[in-house]
Amino acid sequence: MDKKYTEINSNFFDKWVKDGWEWGKPISHEVYEKAKNDDWFVLLTPTKPVPKEWFCEMKNAKVLGLASGGGQQMPVFTALGANCTVLDYSEEQLLSEEEVAKRENYNIEIVRADMTKPLPFEDESFDLIFHPVSNCYVEDIIPIWKECYRVLKKGGILLSGMDNGINYIFNDDETKIIYKLPFNPLKDKRLYEDSIKYDWGIRFSHTIEEQIGGQLQAGFTLTDIYQDTSGSGRLHEFNVPSFYATRVIKK
Length: 251
Fold this sequence. Notes:
Elements: H1 5-18, H2 29-36, E1 62-66, H3 74-79, E2 83-88, H4 91-104, E3 109-112, E4 126-131, H5 142-151, E5 152-163, H6 189-197, H7 208-218, E6 221-228, H8 233-237, E7 243-249
Parallel strand pairs: 1-2, 1-4, 2-3, 4-5
Antiparallel strand pairs: 5-7, 6-7
Helix pairs in contact: 5-7
């Protein structure tokens, strides 16, 4: 455990992207063109499109993609007329963003940074923060919600995808419960070794108190929520929800 776990995770993401990871494949030119004609959707969780009414007016909006690299959402928002900034700790995910921006000839601010540290932005910089499932790779998420609140403008929107932790208790084929919650490899040597051995990355379960409660404690107001499945595997086949998405605003 000599190297900081967020750096280890960054290396995992880079490897996964090179191996063809689903969440690291940039959108096609055709998808970008469709978005320019208002035919689009984006995901915060594995399968359910985010309701369009969750978004602000996107034309000229200042949007932050928080841990949202991969060239999947920011190009869509840019096609809708937003001014986008993407922050991610994976170089490969950011290269995907750069690839789409060059291909479609638009500008995007690309920031490589660790979201466990203070965000490198001024107070009240953004109208919208788009934060897909990623806080499962961070041990303490409370500071992230506080930073999101700080960098959002008054009336700004935070859209977040989160998991509820149930994925972590099962073996890989989801037939046996073998791990207990909370799932924290930094506090369990066996979990840490399994996380490296099985190519999981260093992941953490989080409670509803940490996730939705943390957003409320940061000052946000919850306006909507939905749940989702993992999109594959046994839990998905039985329609067991293991993810949820929230829409909160800074009043």
